[in-house]
Amino acid sequence: MTTFFTRAVGSRSIAVAALAFAQGCGGEPARPVPQHVLLIVVDTLRADHLSTYGYRRETSPALAELAASGVLFENAISQCSWTSPSMVSLMTGQYVAGERLAIPADRTTLAEVFMQNGFATGAFVSNEILSPENQFARGFHQFSPMNPYTSNQPIVDWLTRMAKGKTFTYVHFNEPHDPYRPPRKSMWNFGKEGGGLPDGRLEFYRRFAKQHALEDFDHSVATIETEIGGYDDEVFAVDARIRELLAAVHTLGQDASTVVLVTADHGEGLWTREAYDVGQRAAKLAGGEKPTLVNVLMNSHGNQVNHELLHVPLILRAPGLRAGTKIAAWVENVDVAPTLLELCDLAVPAGLQGRSLLALLDAPATVPARDVFSHTRFASSVIDANGMQLVLPTELGRCELGLGTELYDLKRDPEARENLAAREPAIVDALSRVAHERLAIGIPGKDEVSPANLSILNALGYTDNGIVEVAVDRSRISTPDLIAVLVDPTVGCTARLEVVKALRGRTLDDEQRRELEAHAAHESSSTVRTELASLLAAH
Q1: Cα(first)–Cα(last) distance of the chain, in Å?
Q2: What percent of the chain has pLDDT over 70?
Q3: Could you tell me the maximum CA-CA distance found in the chain, to the nearest angstrom?
């Protein structure tokens, strides 16, 4: 496949690119340019719970058929472990370096590029946080909210109505999402089986429960097995919805003119490892709720960057692609936008940080290996070509949770149980540099959490895990009031750290200095103590 000079605007450059495309590479037939794009994102879908990816339960027969007729990327990674930042990244082709609920106004979206190039654009979205308020409707002629477990008919009607033109259709399903209970009992199959734990998981549970003196072990294991079965039932249900859409494409006679790409915004914890001690969950335990495997381990997603939360399916079928291809190289959801645009022979907007995946299909030996990156407010992740994963805490993660640096060999240790950071300092240093480089170029900062957004985030369970923080501007708060916040024993670590930063550059009198010195003597966070020491040394 010829690599296009997509930013060239002169007519001669366009003519040369068109000629190269028509001839193909090395005399091979040119890849057809599709007229339709169907982008399907399944919320909260772990790749390793798909039979397509080797899962022992038959959860995804439709996706298996799609992969057999297209390309399966074995190691695809999302850029965040919760929906909003992940989808901001996917829809802009750029990394995120901070919490983002909304697509920034200065970033071009994938839908806008298709709209500008004459495609009819439609979105059918089941997750309320992906709203017009948060700029996810930008670039769509039709943006339709929909509920999980509803009919695909509005999507099929759209595809049928627009069949004679060019279309870009984005569908966001939300079936596999906590609580894991399909609405009809006829859909409860795996949830009634019991079992379902991967090899070694029960032994891990026994060790963990003993180490942490957890209660109700047998009941907790049975509950987790039922919940995982319910999750698998929901995966099967969404696979059936995907089959219906693929059937509609076939009925319209568009198989040979349609790109289909299926991925997910993130995975799911499913009680793989310990949860962070934050949010409403931590408050319940502190309030006397007895600790069990069910409430101490991470069931959902959002604040961690471990593999089970980032490894997502990525399946691509398009005209001219070799069926049944499997790609083992590490790729990212940030690559989705440039891949779809190259397939459709459209210019790639300046600033995209992903790369088209077509070169991995046409000439994989020429494609240099690339580290893949993900980020939450508590930690960043970098995975290299050898499957070594760095989990690097942010300042907040170190301060709020006391997180340390972690390094895992995912090929040898897929559930990330053995931290190799102390034994492999050179790898830690190399991947840390990558993390800082990606953070430097990612979409920065926070956006304001509106009351409507906060209500949705509460309903989705994100505040349970301390994923979202409402920003507070402390620059106009008086020095005495800031110090009062700092010394308040009920104030969390993050707020204390922000207070110390807000005190930088202010003049302190002797009494205020003594208060800060007294607080520094018993400050529990080493990060806050360091900042305080720096502040006091400057006065």
Answers
A1: 63
A2: 89
A3: 81
